[in-house]
Amino acid sequence: RVLFRSGVVVIRPERLPLREQLRAYRNAERLIFEDGSAVHTLQLLGGGLGDVSILHRRPGVGPFYAVSIRPRARRFHWVEVLRGFLTPYRPSGAHISSLGMGIPDEALLLGALPDLLGDDSHAATIRAGWNSAAFAEAVERDLVTWSNQLGVYMNLLCLPTTTAAITEIGRAHV
Q: What's the whole-model pTM score?
């Protein structure tokens, strides 16, 4: 809601037909994604994109996006906003990072706003309406949802119950 109030158009690609997604991306001056499947849609557009920023959600995927998106965009920006990454692991100790979940760092996210939005006035509007308690609650809800979905997925694969390991990102502590 705070993004909408500051003038940012938020779209949920999974709720739009492909043509509408492509039109929205083509016409945007600035695109901000969380790394994931929606970013691949940009490859269908060829070149001529505006500024593209991708919020880091998982370790190890930045180089892929740099190779596939940088040539298509006026400017490409990979934004580090994680304080940690939860990774389930098998009883053998092998991590299953493809099923992991990034834990965002509020200070890094807020600090990146001027560059993400192109000016400090939008960033100031967002910061003024920011609710740290609501952010923390949303992260907690996401962790619970992730944990519940992970349990269902692991049961479907007939794998033993897993636990999660936290990988520290940067200098912050989880």
A: 0.79
